[in-house]
Amino acid sequence: MICYVLFVFSILCSVTGGGEGATVAYNPTDLFLFNCGSTSDNVDDNGRNWTVENRKFMLSNLDNASFSSDALYQKTGVPQVPYMKARIFRSDFTYSFPVSPGWKFIRLYFYPNQYNFGFDAVNTFFSVTVNGFTLLQNFSADITVKASKTESIIKEFIVPVNQTLNLTFKPSLSSLAFVNGIEIVSMPDRFYSKGGFDDKIINVDSFVDFEIDNSTAFETVHRRNIGGQMVSDVRDSGMFRQWLPDDDFGNGGVVVSVLNAKINYTDKTPVYVAPEDVYATSRSMGVINKDPSLNLQRNLTWYFTVDAGYTYLVRLHFFETTLDVNGINQRVFSIFIGKQEAKREMDVIRLSGGSQNPVYIDFRVFVGSENGMRPDLRLDLHPLAETGPLFYDAILNGVEILKLNSSDGNLAGTNPDPILSSDLTPSLISPRVGKGNNSHILVIILIPVGSTIVLATFIVALMLSMRQMKRKKKRKENSIVTFKVPLKQYTYAELKKITKSFSYTLGKGGFGTVYGGSLSDGRKVAVKVLKDSNASGQDFINEVASMSQTSHVNIVSLLGFCYEGSKRGIVYEFLENGSLDQFASRNKSLIQDVTTLYGIALGIARGLEYLHYGCKTRIVHFDIKPQNILLDGNLCPKVSDFGLAKLCEKRESIVSLIDTRGTIGYIAPELFSRMYGRVSHKSDVYSYGMLVLQMIGAKDKELVEATVSNASSSYFPDWIYKNLENGEETWIFGDEVTKAEKATAKKMVVVGLWCIQPCPSNRPPMNRVVEMMEGSLDALEVPPKPSMYISTRLIPETSSLSDSEEAE
Fold first, then answer.
1. Of 582, 609, 720, 735, which has the fewest CB atoms closer than 10 Å, so is most exposed?
2. Catalytic residue chosen out of the listed positions 44, 393, 623, 641
3. Where does the record place the Protein kinase domain (predicted)?
4. What integer pLDDT is reported at residue 464 of this predicted model?
5. What is the strand order of the sheet 177-179 is part of?
């Protein structure tokens, strides 16, 4: 431990050697490094000492609530400490850290891998809360790691604490939780809340200074050393932050690096704001000697992926590393964040007061969901010519992007899409369209050349089309769409072998029959065999294409398919408890347990949320009903049967349908008549609401079918709504229901009634439905009465999208 203290002291001393105005590096008051699950202290690759967990800080019953485990293997690039040990949580588990008042860094270390005792961290989903803030919700470390193209992940948060920091891990339904390492580090007072070097936070949306109060928590989304290499935690200035390179966010720009740079830290920009390694490197546009004005046609641009629906603090770090720029009005540029002008005139030397003084500026920006749930926050720097600067150029040294908690204390976003491709990363420098004589000459040359190419292409395409038509029938019987993930294709003979000649029937329907079977390794499976068909098999392709893009605990797993002439089958995981309707008929007492119902309903909501927002291509199911909800041995629900599903190319696409699809009793009204609005992902929301209401109180299915199909006055939600207004709560089961269970049942009813609002625009999206289901009943308003009789004057001419988007 003494060696460790001396090591840290040497690091802190090494970063105080800046200019005359330098202050000392920050010395943290609180510092905890827990190597979770370890039985001895260990030193990591950077020389930091990770200790065993202090049992005084662990409020939960260790033996019953958690156990420790070792990773079975160590992947390349994964350090031994703290990633090869883990603490696994069976139920809610709380660490309680005694700390001094103030903001604290919380860093959680995750390595999704196979562990001893059969624990598979890859398939875990869980939440993490601290002192009333939700840090992670239904979090998948495996999905996050795959999206980041790494083998391990560190999630960093900043939370205000009075005296005790209570950190709680909550496994999701039918799952476990885990963590490899926990780091708690104190920080300077109001370091990220007071503003930049000038104590101001510029509000990009309104240009009115923004203030952050002492009850705000943050998540570090990005911390980038622009133009430089990774700065490790021990080379930071006392808070053990990691600064990652910006290479993943585009190519281009000119990297400027100054060896032995003399950096004069000041009282306004202390040495702990950012280490020398950050200020000594930068990216600029570069000076074009032939025609410097060409830079006026370009931007220096970065794209940073964030979660939609949150406010962000964007901190930009600047230091003039170029020796030629040593005075004011020599390099002046504008800053744009999210395509909005954030600061019109940025002159680093004028602002910092000297050519060797670093400076940092804070901005506030809100990111909406109009571009999806995981949009890119764009940062542009553009030379400003109107001041007559010496150089038309821009420069940036460092970026920090922090998410602020929502009004209910939530910081958790959705799990990222692991399929995202780096090929889509935009170029760092984005040229603008220029005008000049050269472009006119180029157009004149290209016109005859282009015409010749177009004519030749047309002739070749026509010949290929004719040849393709001749082979179309044969090819169609032996091909299938290209799926996003590799799938095993079975022959029909193999399906017969798996199912022992289709001897064990699990269920039947209009589509065909589901059989039980076993793979060669003994794994039980369900095999859906569709009725013989000579048609194109679009429903089959829909189902396989949809399921091949999904990977979620609440979505049934596709294992393979058969596409052999008219023989079509789907092989997926076997679930012990069958469909929800079958389980309900067999287990009357259990299905009337409010806690069980709530867990099933919440799992279904999370599955639909994943289909709508977690996949790269939005999937609308169109047939949510009890028969299509399967339950495993732990009653974890899984959405199945994607035969009617539709894939939307755009996140917010309006769905074009020529047929009414779904099951009577669960079909949204807009699928019957467009007077209610246009068909979209909100149709699944309606079906989900009907399902929840049926689970909690509608006992007469014939009544449901009659009322929805005929829109009669006996529409069954009417009596549920009436009971809600009167406080009768006749949907509650039994006399032994607790007060908490009554609140849970009432919450399900309120959420269900919101979901079945006739107008799609009045229904909440599925991500909001999950929040409502997980939140407090007191936070929910009672929705309007959902009547099937509505005036067309109440239906907006456009829903959430434009007519052009509907056409697409």
1. 735
2. 623
3. 500-777
4. 58
5. 66-70, 85-89, 177-179
| C-alpha to C-alpha distance for 537 and 635, rounded to whole angstroms | 32
Which of these, 396, 395, 402, 394, lies nearest to 377 by C-alpha position?
Answer: 402
Residue 802 has pLDDT above 70, yes or no: no
Specify the amino acid at residue 347: D
Question: How many of the other CB atoms lie within 10 Å of CB of 88?
Answer: 24
Query: How many Å from the N-terminal Cα to the C-terminal Cα in the chain?
Result: 64
What does pTM read for this prediction?
0.55
Can you tell me the distance from the alpha carbon of 574 to that of 630, in angstroms, rounded to the nearest whole number?
A: 9
- Residue 617's pLDDT is what? 74
Could you tell me the pLDDT band of residue 414, with boundaries at 50, 70 and 90? confident
> In degrees to the nearest 10, what's the CA dihedral of 701, 703, 708, 713?
-160
For helices 766-774 and 682-696, what crossing angle results, to 10°?
30
Return the structure tokens found at 394.
């821009």
In angstroms, rounded to a whole number, what is the distance separating the alpha carbons of residues 328 and 347? Answer: 7
Q: What is the mean pLDDT of the chain?
A: 80
The residue type of 479 is S
Q: What is the DSSP letter of 611?
A: I
- Peptide bond before residue 717 is cis, with ω within 30 degrees of 0: no
588 is in an annotated binding site: no
Q: Domain extents for the chain?
A: 1-27+219-418+425-431, 29-186, 488-573, 580-807
- Cα 697 from chain centroid? 34
Partners of 362 in the β-ladder:
201, 315
> Rounded CA gap, 27 and 10, in Å?
12
CATH topology of domain 488-573: Phosphorylase Kinase; domain 1 (3.30.200)
Q: How far is CA 437 from the centre of its chain?
A: 47
CA distance 783 to 764: 11
Biggest alpha carbon–alpha carbon distance for the chain = 86
The answer to whether 770 touches 805, Cβ cutoff 8 Å, is no
Question: Mean of the pLDDT values across residues 587-595?
Answer: 75
568 pLDDT above the threshold of 80: yes
CA nearest neighbour of 585 among 577, 594, 576, 574: 577
Residues 6+ apart with CB under 8 A from 88: 37, 66, 67, 68, 69, 115, 119, 176, 177, 178
CA-wise closest residue to 15 among 231, 320, 190: 231
d(CA 775, CA 764): 14
Residue 628 C-beta-side C-alpha neighbours within 13 Å: 25
DSSP label of 177: E
Find, among 199, 187, 186, the residue nearest to 360 by Cα: 199
Cα–Cα distances in Å, from 393 out to 299, 315, 367, 769? 9, 20, 28, 47
pLDDT class of 402 with cuts at 50, 70, 90: very high
CA neighbor of 707 nearest in space, from 693, 696, 726: 693
The verdict on domain 580-807 having CATH code 1.10.510.10 is: yes
Please tell me if the domain spanning 1-27+219-418+425-431 has the same topology as the one spanning 29-186: yes
Task: Give the domain 29-186 fold.
Answer: Jelly Rolls (2.60.120)
- Residues of the chain with pLDDT > 70, as a percent, come to 75
Find out whether 178 and 172 touch, Cβ atoms under 8 Å: no
pLDDT given for residue 522 in this prediction: 81
Q: How many Å apart are CA 699 and CA 173, to the nearest integer?
A: 26
User: How far is the C-alpha of 81 from the C-alpha of 344, rounded, in Å?
Assistant: 46
Q: Which of 781, 641, 625, 605 is nearest to 694 (CA)?
A: 625
Checking if the pLDDT of 672 tops 60, the result is: yes
Q: What is the DSSP letter of 549?
A: T
Assess whether pLDDT exceeds 80 at residue 299.
yes
CATH number at 1-27+219-418+425-431: 2.60.120.430
Which pLDDT score, from 0 to 100, does residue 397 have? 95
Which H/E stretch holds residue 694?
Answer: helix 682-696
pLDDT at 460: 56
